[in-house]
Amino acid sequence: MGTAQVIPDGMTKELAIQQTRHWLETAVIGLGFCPFAGPVYSRGLVRFAVSEARSETDLESDLVDELHRLESTPPDILETTVLIHPWVLTQFADFNEFLEVADHLLEWHGYVGKFQIASFHPQYQFAGVAADDITHFTNRSPFPTLHLLRESSVTRAVASMPDPGSIVTDNQATLRRLGRAGWDALRIGGCPVDTATDSPDFPSAPFPKSNLP
Q1: Taking the model in full, what pTM does it have?
Q2: With 70 as the cut, is the pLDDT of residue 1 above it?
Q3: Which of 85, 150, 141, 142 is nearest to 117 (CA)?
Q4: How far apart are CA 163 and CA 189, in angstroms?
């Protein structure tokens, strides 16, 4: 297993949202990881929800509740939801396995083709990439996070770009220019992970289905 994630003493839902907002503003929008994120965020259409779940079963329930909320709310009021879960699935291997459960929930509730789930984690690691590679940080968030997206919005956003495939390579180039010292200077993350000692012996994730935050 990789290095254990450290949840700071005194962590609260308010602090989790504050640190996630800082990551979104500083990295996802600030570094241009997602060219679609800024307008949605500036219009106040992003919901930040914090799950208090301590078990996968409770997280499943919170995830379904947030999917139902997204379905029942017009996109001009709520476009997307960031579901933060600081106290469960803190190990990336467990989190990565849970993504299959999340996909099953989408299917079970008839949300395939309507919503998709992007994933972020403090220990995020892409398959086939060295454990200490800086490019993992495109998907490293302060806390384990599930991002609920409207499929139609993702399709429109991608169609509006002349070369959407360049997002990944551009983000990788940005991080390599920034370097680990530059990333650390952004002071992102409530749960520090030492990638120098983070073992690559856990399953890695493929590239995400969406680069939206």
Answers
A1: 0.86
A2: no
A3: 150
A4: 31
- Alpha carbon of residue 5 to chain centroid: 16
Helix axes 92-108, 56-72, angle to 10 degrees: 50
The candidate with the shortest Cα–Cα distance to 46, out of 122, 127, 145, 130, is 145
| 82-130 tens-digit pLDDT | 999 999 999 999 999 999 999 999 999 999 999 999 999 999 999 999 9
Q: How does pLDDT run across 21-60, given as a tens digit for each residue?
A: 999 999 999 999 998 899 999 999 999 999 999 999 999 9
Cα gap 129→172, rounded to integer Å = 12
Nearest of 94, 87, 96, 98 to residue 191 by alpha carbon = 87
Tokens standing for residue 177: 């220019």
104-122 residues labelled b (16+ CB within 10 A) or e (exposed): ebbeeeebeeebbbbbbbb
At 102, list the tokens. 């999340």
Distances (CA, A) of 195 to 19, 44, 58: 20, 34, 30
